[in-house]
Amino acid sequence: MHKNKLVVLGLIFFYSISNILADAEGFGIKFKNCETVYFNRFFQTVMPGNTVEFNVEAENQENIEVYAEKGNIKKMGGGKWIYTAPENSGDDQLAISNKVSNQSIVITIFVLAPLNKMKGEYLNGYRIGLYPDEGYKGQSKYKKPEGLIEVTGENKDIFITPHFQLKQFLCKQESEWPKYLLLNPKLLVKLEFLISELHKEKVNVKTLFIMSGYRTPYYNKSIGNVKNSRHVYGDAADIYVDENNDGVIDDLNKDNKHTMSDAEVLHEIVSRYDNDPDYEHLMGGLGKYNKNSAHTFFIHVDTRGYKARW
To answer: Whole-prediction pTM value?
Structure first.
């Protein structure tokens, strides 16, 4: 077997049998569309045959090694690397490691399924619906996507960041595999920061319950939601903490009740980040919702680029 594949598979196996740590100490990865991340798991998306540029931020660059399972890797110098994706959609794995310290990061590269291959409202049998050809008010945040992540029975369980799996963000509509979704890395960074703050407040949480992540235009319309919902553009999530999986928000403020006050714990943390100039690039919408017969208390969070409150 090729050395690259052995290295990548070895790291994936390691993370599958060990507790996932939040940080990869010693170095970080900087992508153009996101800040420097220090997670030991992360992801990026790219169209078939296109490139992803990234910088490995480390003191001793000569100790850094990068391997790709399927795509091609080119070292440019000064910590800069260029990944070239395969010509077919699917998922690839990058292993970035320090050969001296043995510290490693695994990056999942999702090679997108092009939307220009849709037949009517369907992509490989999965109903997407139709994105507007022109973005809302000409904003780039509402630009029609070129492609979507293909989710299969084989890759749905991939950890795309330390605390979140790909399947958590799937649209709720019923369908066979493959399914498709749009997901912005910035949203995952924001959610990971939220978990980090909960840990600082002594809240033992392994993940967040994603009540609603991506929505296809078809599904979004079918539930009567607003046309330009950020869920349709892959950078929004409706969330709450539910460690015991009982469908009720956990008692985050330790008052022995399950109320809006628990959702407000999450709301306050996100609001704090949105008001911090250092995290302006993650700014977005924030709303809180009361419980009803269908769901518990929860908050909406997104990274639309400007504040919106409700």
So the answer is: 0.92
pLDDT score of 113 more than 70: yes
Q: Name the average pLDDT for the chain.
A: 92
What is the CATH T-level fold of the domain 3-110, as seen in this structure?
Immunoglobulin-like (2.60.40)
Q: How far apart are the C-alpha atoms of 259 and 297, rounded to whole Å?
A: 7
Closest CA to 253 of 266, 244, 242: 266
Distance (Å) of CA 126 to CA 129, 180, 192: 9, 7, 30
Write down the pLDDT at residue 63. 94
Digit-coded pLDDT (tens) for 189-202: 999 999 999 999 99
- Can you give the pLDDT at residue 20? 40
Q: Would you state the CATH architecture of domain 155-168+181-309?
A: 2-Layer Sandwich (3.30)
Please enumerate in sequence order all residues whose Cβ is within 8 A of that of 66, keeping only pairs 6 or more positions apart, or say none. 56, 73, 75, 81, 94, 95, 96, 97
Please list the residues that pair with 209 across neighbouring strands.
240
pLDDT tens readout for residues 118-161: 999 999 999 999 999 887 877 888 999 999 999 999 999 999 99
For the chain, which residues make up each domain, given as ranges?
3-110, 155-168+181-309
Say how far apart CA 212 and CA 234 lie, in whole Å: 11
Q: What is the rounded distance in angstroms from the CA atom of residue 58 to the CA atom of residue 60?
A: 6
The Cα 214–Cα 92 span in angstroms is 21
CB atoms within 10 A of CB 16: 11
Per-residue pLDDT tens for 254-263?
Answer: 999 999 999 9
Per the listing, tokens 């291959």 go with 117
